[in-house]
From TrEMBL, chain A:
NCBIfam families: 2A0604s01, secD. Residues 334-503 form the Protein export membrane protein SecD/SecF C-terminal domain. One of its GO terms (cellular component) is plasma membrane. The lineage of its organism: Bacteria, Pseudomonadati, Campylobacterota, Epsilonproteobacteria, Campylobacterales. The chain crosses the membrane at residues 353-372, 379-400, 406-424, 452-471, 477-501. It is found in: Cell membrane. Residues 140-200 form the Protein translocase subunit SecDF P1 domain. The gene is secD. This is Protein translocase subunit SecD. Belongs to the SecD/SecF family. SecD subfamily. HAMAP family: SecD_B. Forms a complex with SecF. Part of the essential Sec protein translocation apparatus which comprises SecA, SecYEG and auxiliary proteins SecDF. Other proteins may also be involved. Part of the Sec protein translocase complex. Interacts with the SecYEG preprotein conducting channel. SecDF uses the proton motive force (PMF) to complete protein translocation after the ATP-dependent function of SecA. GO terms for biological process: intracellular protein transmembrane transport; protein targeting; protein transport by the Sec complex.
TrEMBL record, chain B:
Belongs to the SecD/SecF family. SecF subfamily. InterPro entries: SecD/SecF_arch_bac, SecD/SecF_bac, SecD/SecF_CS, SecD_SecF_C, SecD_SecF_C_bact, SecF_bac. This is Protein-export membrane protein SecF. Keywords: Cell membrane, Membrane, Protein transport, Translocation, Transmembrane, Transmembrane helix, Transport. Forms a complex with SecD. Part of the essential Sec protein translocation apparatus which comprises SecA, SecYEG and auxiliary proteins SecDF. Other proteins may also be involved. It comes from Aliarcobacter trophiarum LMG 25534. It is a multi-pass membrane protein.
Length: 521, 322
C-alpha cells in the first residue's frame, strides 16, 4: 500500500508551512512575521490629508523674490518697488546699465517667465514649473511628515501618497487623546521659519496701519506669538527662510527657559552675516509660521550662522518645534479630508467579537459536516482547519493587513472551502448510489466536481482582482484575503482531501459498509 | 444523513410563474422602498462625523443632548449604540483643520455628563465621501462586467445574462431590506454586498455547470426537463452550503455585536435571497432568453469536430506527413 501519494505529500508540506508561519500570529510571539492588524482592529489613527499645493507655488515665488533682493543688495543694483502680487514678482530697475546683470542673474534661476517693459520687470513661474512645484510639494510633504513621525518615536507610522495631492497617514497604537493631539500638531506644523527685517522707519505707525497700507510699502503686519495685541511691521520679503536650516536643538536660556538653537548652512550663514553687518542697531524679527517669536536688536555682525528662537515654549513644545524645524518646513500646508480614530479598547472589542463569530461559526460547521457526512465530514474538516492555518501564514508572510472586511473575506473563504467538499461529497454519493465501487466513486466524484468548483472560484477570483484594482482601502483588504483564500482553499479542499482519500483508499475498499464513510445509509 | 433524495426530480420550471411573481413583487417593493424611503447613507458616503462614546454606567442621553445643544454641535443626533453605556453622536459637519480637532472639543464639551471614553471618531469630508461613493459603484460595476464576460466565455452568453439578472435581483432585494430596516450604508456594507455577490454567483455557477453537464451527457431535448433535473440534483448541495454558511453568519449576527451588525445582517438576508434565486430565478431566464438545447448541442458538436480536425492536422505535422 502506498500511503504517501503526491497530493498528500504536498498537503502535508503545506500544513507544516501553515502551522509554522501562523504560529507567531496566533501565539503573539516576538519572532517571525505576524499578521498586520488594521487600525479598525488594533486601534489607532488614520488620516487623509490634502496638500494645499497652491501655497507651495506662492512660497516658491516669494523665495525667488528674496533671492532677487539679496542679489541686488549684494551687487548694489538699485531696484525699487519689489512686490509679490497675483502670482508674479514686480520690480523696476533704476539704472538701465544694470539690466544685463539682472537678466543674467534671472536666467540662472530655472523655470521663470520674464516680461520686461523698459525698466519694469514682471517675473512669474512658467506653467511647467508650477506643475513641478506642486508635485514636489506633495513629495516633500510625504517625506517631511514621515521624518517628523519617525523622530517623534511612534511605532510603525505609515505615510503614503494617494492620488495627485493627498497623503494617507496611519498611526497604529496611539493610546491617548494627548498622544493623538501631539501627533496631529507635529504633522500639521508648517515649521516655516523666516528671518525678517523690521521696517524701523514706519514701525511706530504699525497700530494705525491697515494691512492694505502695509502692503503698499512692501511690508506686512505680524502678531506677536504670546500677545496678539502686540504687532510688528516687517519687510514682506524675508532675509532668509527655513530652507537653509541644517539643524535645530532644544537648549535652555540663562533664565532656564527652553529655547531652540538653529544652525544655517554656509549660504544661509553668509546671507545672515551680510545682513546683520549692514543692519546694526535695527531689529530682526524671528518669525515662525507667521508669528513673531522675538525681535532682538542687532548689536553686531552675527557670523557662524547660528541663531536662537525664544518665546515662551514649554519643554515639550520646544522639542516638537525643533523636530519640525530639523525635518524641514512644509512647502504647503495640509488640511484634513478624512479622519478615523479607533480607541484601543474598541479595537480589542472588534477582534473579540469577530473571533467569537469566526470560531463558533467554524465549530458549528465542523459539527454539521461530521453529522451529515460522517468520516467524509472529518476529512473535510481537516482540510478546513489546514486552510485557516495556511491562510493566516500567507497573510502574515505577504505583510497584508487584516481588517474587519478582511475578516469577512475569511468567513466567505471558509464558506467556499467547505462548499467544495460539499460538492465533491455529493458527487461521490451520486456515483455510490449507482452501485459503483468506492474507488470509482471517489475518482469520478472529484473529476465531476472539479469543473463547477473551478468555475466558481475563478469567477470569485476575477471579482477580487477587479475589486483590488478599483476599490479603496477596506475593499482592497477584502479583495486580498479573498484571493489568497481561494488559492489556499483549492489546495486544501480539493487537492488535500483527494490525497487523503487516495492514501486510505484500500482501507475504505476493504470496509464492507463503506457507504457509511460518506454518510449514505 | 441525507436531506434530499437525489433520485427525485422536482418540477421547478412548471411553477416558474409563481416564483417569478414572488420575485417580481419583491423587486418592485424594494425599488419602491429605495425610491421613497431611500438608503440610510452613513458618513462614508455623504461626509460628516460620528463619535462613539462609552460611559462607565448607563449613558445620560438627556444630559448629553442638553450639553450638545448649548455647544457648536447643536442639532447632533444622539443615539444608543448596542448597549446602554455606549452612544453615538452624529452630525453632518466635518473639520478640515488637522490641529483643531473634534475629539479635543468633544472631550471638553462632554465633561459634565460623567466618566466616558471616546472609542471611535470617524470624520469624512464631503469630497472624500463623494469619491468613496464613486469608487464603490465603479468597483461593483466592474466586478459585474468581469463576471459577465467570464461566464459568457465559459458557458454561453444566455447563461451569463441570466446569472447577472439573478445577481441584480439579489442585490436589489437585499438593498430593499436594508432600506426597510434602516441599516446604515457604509464601506463595510459594500464589503458585505461584495461578499454576497461572490457567494451567490458561486451558487448560480454550480447550477449552470450541472445544466451544461446534462446537455453533454444526456440526449434530453426538453429544456424544462433538463433544468428541473439539474436543479434537483444540485439542490442538496445548494441547501447544505447555504446552511453551513448561514451557521457562520448567524453566529456573527448573534455574537458579533453592534460593530458588525450591518455586515452580518446584509449577509444573512442576502444568502437567503441568493440561494432562492439560484434555485428558482436564474434558470427560467436561460429559457426566456431563448436558449435552445438542439442548437447548443450542434454548436458544441461543431466545436468538437473543429478541435478534432486540428488535432489530426497537428498529429500529421508532428509525424512529418502533410
Amino acid at each position: 500500500m502506498k500511503i504517501f501519494n503526491f497530493k498528500l505529500t504536498i498537503f502535508l508540506i503545506s500544513i507544516i508551512f501553515g502551522v509554522v508561519f501562523s504560529f507567531p500570529s496566533l501565539m503573539q510571539t516576538d519572532y517571525g512575521k505576524k499578521v498586520n492588524l488594521g487600525l479598525d482592529l488594533q486601534g489607532g489613527l488614520h488620516m487623509l490629508l490634502g496638500v494645499n499645493t497652491e501655497e507651495a507655488v506662492a512660497s516658491k515665488l516669494k523665495s525667488i523674490a528674496t533671492a532677487i533682493k539679496y542679489f541686488s543688495d549684494d551687487e548694489e543694483l538699485l531696484i525699487d518697488g519689489l512686490t509679490v502680487n497675483d502670482n508674479s514678482i514686480y520690480f523696476s530697475i533704476l539704472d538701465s546699465d544694470e539690466i544685463a546683470k539682472m537678466d543674467k542673474m534671472l536666467k540662472e534661476i530655472k523655470g521663470l517667465d520674464i516680461a520686461k517693459e523698459d525698466l519694469e520687470y514682471k517675473v512669474s513661474l512658467s506653467s511647467e514649473e508650477i506643475v513641478k512645484t506642486k508635485e514636489y510639494s506633495v513629495v516633500q510633504a510625504v517625506e517631511t511628515i514621515r521624518n517628523r513621525l519617525d523622530q517623534f518615536g511612534l511605532s510603525e507610522p505609515t505615510v503614503i501618497r494617494q492620488g495627485d495631492s493627498d497623503i494617507v497617514v496611519q498611526l497604529p497604537g496611539i493610546k491617548t487623546a494627548q498622544d493623538e493631539k501631539a501627533a496631529r500638531d507635529l504633522i500639521s506644523k508648517a515649521a516655516k521659519l523666516e528671518l525678517m527685517a523690521v521696517d524701523e522707519d514706519r514701525m511706530d505707525r504699525v497700530y494705525q496701519m491697515t494691512s492694505k497700507e502695509a502692503t503698499a510699502f512692501g511690508d506686512v503686519i505680524l502678531e506677536d506669538t504670546n500677545d496678539s495685541n502686540k504687532k510688528y511691521l516687517v519687510k514682506e520679503i524675508p532675509i532668509l527662510d527655513g530652507s537653509q536650516i541644517v539643524d535645530a536643538q532644544v537648549a535652555f536660556s540663562q533664565s532656564n527657559q527652553p529655547i531652540i538653537n538653529f544652525t544655517l548652512n554656509s549660504a544661509g550663514a553668509r546671507i545672515f552675516g551680510d545682513f546683520t553687518a549692514k543692519s546694526v542697531g535695527k531689529r530682526l524679527a524671528i518669525v515662525l509660521d507667521g508669528k513673531v517669536y522675538s525681535a532682538p536688536n542687532i548689536n553686531e555682525r552675527i557670523g557662524g550662522g547660528s541663531g536662537q528662537i525664544s518665546g515662551g515654549f514649554t519643554v515639550q513644545e520646544a522639542g516638537n518645534v525643533a523636530i519640525a524645524l530639523r525635518s524641514g518646513a512644509l512647502l504647503a500646508s495640509v488640511n484634513l479630508l478624512e479622519k478615523r480614530s479607533v480607541g484601543p479598547s474598541l479595537g480589542a472589542d472588534s477582534i473579540k467579537a469577530s473571533m467569537i463569530a469566526l470560531v463558533s461559526g467554524t465549530i458549528l460547521i465542523f459539527l454539521f459536516m461530521i453529522f451529515y457526512y460522517r468520516r467524509a465530514g472529518i476529512i473535510a474538516n481537516i482540510a478546513l482547519l489546514a486552510n485557516v492555518f495556511i491562510l493566516l501564514a500567507v497573510i502574515a508572510l505577504f505583510g497584508a493587513t487584516l481588517t474587519l472586511p478582511g475578516m469577512a473575506g475569511i468567513i466567505l473563504t471558509l464558506g467556499m472551502a467547505i462548499d467544495a467538499n460539499v460538492i465533491i461529497n455529493e458527487r461521490i454519493r451520486e456515483v455510490l448510489r449507482t452501485g459503483a465501487s468506492v474507488h470509482k466513486a471517489i475518482e469520478d466524484g472529484y473529476s465531476n466536481a472539479i469543473r463547477a468548483i473551478m468555475d466558481g472560484n475563478i469567477t470569485t477570483f476575477l471579482v477580487a482582482i477587479v475589486l483590488y484594482a478599483y476599490g479603496s482601502g477596506a475593499i482592497k483588504g477584502f479583495a486580498v484575503t479573498i484571493s489568497i483564500g481561494i488559492l489556499t482553499s483549492m489546495l486544501t479542499s480539493i487537492l488535500g482531501t483527494h490525497g487523503i482519500y487516495q492514501a486510505i483508499m484500500s482501507k475504505i475498499a476493504k470496509d464492507k459498509n463503506n457507504k457509511k464513510w460518506f454518510g449514505v445509509a | 444523513m441525507e436531506i434530499f433524495n437525489n433520485n427525485k426530480t422536482y418540477d421547478f420550471m412548471g411553477k416558474k410563474i409563481a416564483f417569478l411573481s414572488i420575485s417580481g413583487i419583491l423587486i418592485v417593493a424594494s425599488i419602491f422602498l429605495l425610491l421613497t424611503r431611500g438608503l440610510n447613507y452613513g458618513i462614508d458616503f455623504v461626509g460628516g462625523t460620528i463619535v462613539q462614546v462609552k460611559y462607565d454606567k448607563a449613558a445620560p442621553l438627556d444630559k448629553i443632548r442638553e450639553v450638545l445643544e448649548n455647544s457648536k454641535y447643536a442639532g447632533s443626533n444622539v443615539t444608543e449604540f448596542g448597549t446602554k453605556e455606549e452612544i453615538t453622536i452624529r452630525f453632518t459637519g466635518s473639520s478640515s483643520s488637522v490641529t483643531n480637532d473634534i475629539s479635543d472639543e468633544m472631550n471638553k464639551i462632554l465633561v459634565p455628563t460623567g466618566n466616558f471614553e471616546i472609542r471611535k471618531i470617524d470624520m469624512v469630508g464631503a469630497k472624500v465621501g463623494a469619491e468613496l461613493r464613486e469608487k464603490g459603484i465603479m468597483a461593483l460595476s466592474m466586478a459585474l462586467l468581469a463576471m459577465l464576460i467570464y461566464i459568457a466565455a465559459r458557458f454561453e452568453w444566455r447563461f451569463a445574462i441570466a446569472s447577472i439578472i439573478g445577481l441584480i435581483h439579489d442585490v436589489i432585494i437585499t438593498l430593499g431590506l436594508i432600506s426597510l430596516f434602516k441599516i446604515d450604508v457604509n464601506l463595510d456594507m459594500i464589503a458585505a454586498i461584495l461578499t454576497l455577490v461572490g457567494y451567490t454567483i458561486n451558487d448560480t455557477i454550480i447550477v449552470n455547470d450541472r445544466i451544461r453537464e446534462s446537455l453533454q451527457i444526456t440526449k434530453e431535448r426538453d429544456l424544462d426537463a433538463l433544468i428541473n433535473d439539474s436543479v434537483s440534483r444540485t439542490l442538496s448541495r445548494t441547501v447544505l452550503t447555504s446552511s453551513t454558511t448561514q451557521l457562520a453568519v448567524l453566529t456573527m449576527l448573534i455574537f458579533g455585536g453592534e460593530i458588525i451588525y450591518a455586515f452580518s445582517f446584509t449577509l444573512f438576508v442576502g444568502i437567503i435571497i441568493g440561494t432562492y434565486s439560484s434555485i428558482f430565478v436564474v434558470s427560467p431566464f436561460i429559457k426566456f432568453l431563448g436558449f435552445n438545447t438542439d442548437s447548443y448541442r450542434s454548436k458544441q458538436a461543431i466545436k468538437a469536430a473543429n478541435r478534432k480536425e486540428k488535432e489530426k492536422l497537428r498529429a500529421m505535422y508532428e509525424q512529418g506527413r502533410v
